[in-house]
Amino acid sequence: MMQLKEMIMTVGVGVAMACTPFVTVHAQQEPSIYGDAVKADVKMNYVYSFEEALKRSKQEGKPIFFNCFADWAVPCHTMNQVVFSDAKFCDYMNKHFVNLFLDVTRSEEGKALAQQYKVETFAQYLVLNEKGEVLLRILGGKKLPEFQEAVALALSDKTSLLGTEAKYNTGKYNKKDLLNYLNALSLAQDERYASVAKVYLGMLPEKDYAKKENWDVIRQSVVDRYSDLYSYLVAHRSDFVKSVGERTVNTLLERLYIPDLMDYACGKKEYDAGQLLALSTDMQKAEIPDASMCYLLYDIAKLRGTKKYPELIELMKTRGRELEGRRLPVELSFEFPELSKSERELIGGFLKEEAGRESEGSNSKKYLSALAQHILVGQEAGISFDVHTFAEAMEKAKAENKLVFMDCYTTWCGPCRMMAAQVFTQQKVGDYFNEHFVSLKMDMEKGEGITLGKKYGVTAYPTMLILDTQGNVMHTMVGSRSAEELIKEAREHSDPTKGYAVSKAAYEAGERTPDAIANYITALVSAKELTALQGDSLATTYLDGWDDAKFCDASSWPLLEAAVVNPQGKAFSRLLKLHDGLTKAVPAEKVNKKIERVCFPVVLDYLQHKTEKDAVLRLLEPLKQGTYPAEYTLVLIEDLLRQENVDDVLAFYRQRVQGMQNPQDQLNMDSLLPYFLEKATESQKAKFVEYMTDRAKNCDKRAARKYAVLLEVIKQGGYKG
Question: Confidence class of residue 3 from pLDDT cuts 50, 70 and 90?
Answer without folding.
Answer: very low
